[in-house]
């Protein structure tokens, strides 16, 4: 008798829906044997995991019954006996290898008998146990970062932060088995299974391996990335609402990469896998996130004379980027680097020859200790790189610096609050205050450690270029709602900073982009010439009608507007703004009280805000403990301004606060998302 209920309760594993024992390391579990004639002291247990268990690799343990628990090794203590049964408490060490174990028992009194198999159990990390590398002293944080299946992911851009719900679903049906098979499909396991298994007691090892396995690069991992704006042959990254469907699809297809992922999908799936295995994990969104491809802590962007953002540099600045933080100690670096560690499963740059990233200690990033393992220079650049904007002439290959900025990158770094659906800003945990001397000192320290201070860089701007002062300033102001389906109204504001008149020729463009700010389609362009009197400020209204951008918009709803100002007798001035348009709202109503095993009606209401018909309307609904799997409902076409109401039934099967996630898409709007908390 494995005492599934009691053991699961004691080990915080009750949410797994499994007929198998699932326990956490460094903590005892109880088993009872019936019909044992043997005197208990003659029993020897064998716990083993992996294809070639060995004592040396810590994948096999043999232990008898002792009077007290050993904290360093596997042990068994007698709990109680009756005439025909014996209850034994089995203890695993806090640094045991995690995974699926086979438990056998052998009688020592008769040498001939071979061990009798008692069955299998799964051993996980234990953030509730002070001896574990993943120990998290705050219980509310354990609840959130290990047991919570609902998350909120932040997106949009630094001027306009939006958010959507996500169903991590780490305790759903087959997810634990899929996570374990993910470990057995890694390159490390394929190259050397015994060594790989012996490292599975180490969260930093598993975090790194799994950051590689969640992307399909190198190893036929879970998700194939696609940032083209064209997602035929798969699901658009913005249409997913949870990790369960992705992981199940990966398994169902015989472990072929699922199409398609972008950063938040990679991060959400990695959160699911790590929480499932017991490593406290959360998603982090960094706004204006640098992708520094060449490791010089500088990001270069190029614009042509017309103001078009040229897609010619390996470097880029994303509107936002989502990665993970996992909580564990860093015995390799020392206690001051323990705590939150950055892991990133999005395939951006290779590390050690494959697409994996981390764990990078968050404290090391803040202190500029970029020489420490793993991938600190890349993560440091994501939140700290300097930005250089260049004018590039494709005909001559000549580039001229327009301006450089050191305060743009790494803003409003965000994560979900513990126990609440709110945003928490963690920017100060990544860096000292922008513009402070401490922040600049750390940046210099990092450059020095990377050997960038002493090296001549022919691609860097000269001090003269950096110091040049523009004659005018400019900015784009928003003048109206930023919503898909409405005209986009902006104002270009130009101000003469000098006491003599200036003639300015302005070339303006608007492009649809993906959230990485990669230009996809030109939407609009215009040019004007203006004379600005001394110290004069002028405003120029810009209107881009919905029909003009509707066809070109990507599922990210992002538009980059640029004005390149050629000032006669002065230096060029670049004005730009990234616009993220909001989707129209969708509303969920729960009609009546939600009770366990009782039907409750839910209504989803959507009004078509545009004067065109909406076709191919599909509603997708999911929510842990509210419904099994994903509900897909085809919604009839919606005429201009028409309101639709879609009703469906739920039968909740657990009490407590649950989250219902809804995703509505049609031919004109991609992935309109919302969620509602349902108290069952």
Automatic annotation (TrEMBL):
Please name the top-level EC class of this enzyme: transferase
A Pfam family matched in the record: Transglut_N
| Molecular function terms from GO | metal ion binding; protein-glutamine gamma-glutamyltransferase activity
Q: Which InterPro entries match?
A: Ig-like_fold, Ig_E-set, Papain-like_cys_pep_sf, Transglutaminase, Transglutaminase-like, Transglutaminase-like_sf, Transglutaminase_animal, Transglutaminase_AS
| Positions of Ca(2+) binding | 384, 386, 434, 439
Q: Which UniProt keywords apply?
A: Acyltransferase, Calcium, Metal-binding, Transferase
Source superkingdom: Eukaryota
Keyword Transmembrane in the entry? The reply is: no
Task: Name the SUPFAM superfamilies for this protein.
Answer: Cysteine proteinases, E set domains, Transglutaminase, two C-terminal domains
Task: Locate the active site.
Answer: 263, 321, 344
Q: Which Gene3D superfamilies match?
A: Immunoglobulins, Transglutaminase-like
- Catalytically driven reaction(s): L-glutaminyl-[protein] + L-lysyl-[protein] = [protein]-L-lysyl-N(6)-5-L-glutamyl-[protein] + NH4(+)
- EC numbers listed for it are 2.3.2.13
Q: According to the record, how does the cofactor bind?
A: Binds 1 Ca(2+) ion per subunit.
* Record-annotated Transglutaminase-like domain positions: 255-347
The cofactors it requires, by name, are: Ca(2+)
What protein family is recorded? Belongs to the transglutaminase superfamily. Transglutaminase family.
Q: What is the protein's name according to its record?
A: protein-glutamine gamma-glutamyltransferase
Q: What is the phylogenetic placement of the source species in the record?
A: Eukaryota, Metazoa, Chordata, Craniata, Vertebrata
């Amino acid at each position: 008798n494995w005492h599934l209920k009691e053991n699961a309760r004691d080990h915080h594993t009750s949410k797994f829906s499994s007929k198998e024992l699932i326990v956490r390391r460094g903590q005892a579990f109880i088993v009872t044997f019936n019909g044992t004639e043997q005197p208990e002291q003659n029993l020897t247990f064998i716990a083993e995991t992996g294809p070639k268990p060995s004592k040396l690799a810590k994948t096999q343990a043999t232990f008898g019954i002792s009077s007290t628990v050993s904290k360093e090794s596997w042990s068994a203590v007698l709990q109680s006996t009756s005439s025909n049964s014996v209850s034994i408490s089995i203890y695993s060490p806090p640094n045991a290898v995690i995974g699926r174990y086979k438990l056998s028992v052998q009688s020592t009194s008769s040498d001939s008998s071979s061990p009798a198999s008692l069955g299998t159990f799964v051993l996980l990390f234990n953030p509730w146990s002070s001896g574990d590398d993943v120990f998290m002293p705050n219980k509310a944080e354990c609840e959130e970062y290990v047991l919570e299946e609902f998350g909120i992911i932040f997106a949009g851009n630094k001027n306009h932060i939006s958010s959507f719900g996500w169903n991590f679903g780490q305790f759903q049906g087959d997810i634990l088995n899929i996570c374990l098979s993910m470990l057995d499909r890694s390159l490390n396991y394929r190259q050397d299974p015994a060594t790989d298994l012996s490292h599975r007691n180490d969260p930093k090892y598993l975090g790194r391996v799994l950051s590689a396995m969640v992307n399909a690069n190198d190893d036929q991992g879970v998700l194939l990335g696609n940032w083209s704006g064209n997602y035929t042959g798969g699901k658009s990254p913005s249409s997913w609402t949870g990790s369960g469907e992705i992981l199940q699809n990966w398994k169902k297809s015989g472990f072929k990469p699922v199409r398609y992922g972008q950063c938040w999908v990679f991060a959400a799936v990695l959160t699911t896998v790590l929480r499932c295995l017991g490593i406290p994990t959360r998603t982090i969104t960094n706004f204006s996130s640098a992708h520094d491809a060449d490791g010089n802590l500088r990001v270069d962007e190029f614009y042509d004379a017309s103001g078009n953002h040229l897609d010619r540099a390996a470097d880029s600045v994303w509107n936002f980027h989502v990665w993970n933080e996992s909580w564990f100690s860093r015995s390799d670096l020392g206690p001051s680097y323990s705590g939150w560690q950055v892991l990133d499963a999005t395939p951006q740059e290779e590390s050690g020859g494959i697409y994996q990233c981390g764990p990078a200690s968050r404290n090391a990033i803040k202190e500029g200790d970029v020489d420490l393992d793993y991938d600190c220079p890349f993560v440091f650049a994501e939140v700290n790189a300097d930005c250089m904007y260049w004018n590039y002439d494709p005909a001559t290959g000549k580039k001229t610096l327009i301006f450089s900025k050191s305060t743009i990158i790494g803003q409003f770094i965000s994560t979900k609050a513990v126990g609440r659906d709110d945003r928490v800003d963690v920017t100060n945990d990544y860096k000292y205050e922008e513009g402070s001397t401490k922040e600049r000192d750390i940046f210099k320290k990092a450059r020095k450690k990377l050997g960038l201070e002493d090296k001549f860089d022919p691609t860097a701007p000269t001090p003269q270029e950096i110091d040049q002062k523009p004659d005018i300033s400019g900015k784009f102001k928003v003048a109206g709602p930023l919503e898909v389906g409405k005209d986009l109204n902006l104002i270009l504001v130009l101000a003469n900073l000098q006491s003599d008149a200036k003639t300015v020729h302005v070339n303006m463009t608007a492009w649809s982009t993906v959230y990485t700010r990669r230009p996809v389609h030109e939407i609009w362009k215009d040019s004007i010439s203006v004379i600005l009197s001394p110290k004069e400020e002028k405003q120029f209204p810009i209107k881009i009608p919905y029909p003009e951008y509707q066809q070109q918009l990507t599922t990210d709803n992002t538009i980059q507007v640029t004005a390149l100002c050629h000032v006669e007798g002065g230096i060029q001035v670049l004005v730009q703004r990234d616009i993220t348009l909001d989707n129209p709202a969708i509303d969920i109503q729960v009609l009546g009280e939600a009770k366990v095993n009782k039907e409750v009606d839910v209504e989803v209401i959507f009004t078509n805000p545009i004067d065109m018909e909406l076709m191919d309307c599909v509603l997708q609904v999911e929510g842990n403990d509210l419904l099994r799997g994903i509900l897909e409902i085809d919604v009839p076409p919606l005429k201009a301004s028409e309101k639709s109401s879609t009703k469906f039934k739920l039968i909740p099967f657990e009490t407590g606060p649950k989250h219902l996630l809804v995703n509505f898409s049609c031919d004109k709007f991609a992935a309109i998302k919302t969620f509602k908390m349902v108290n069952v």
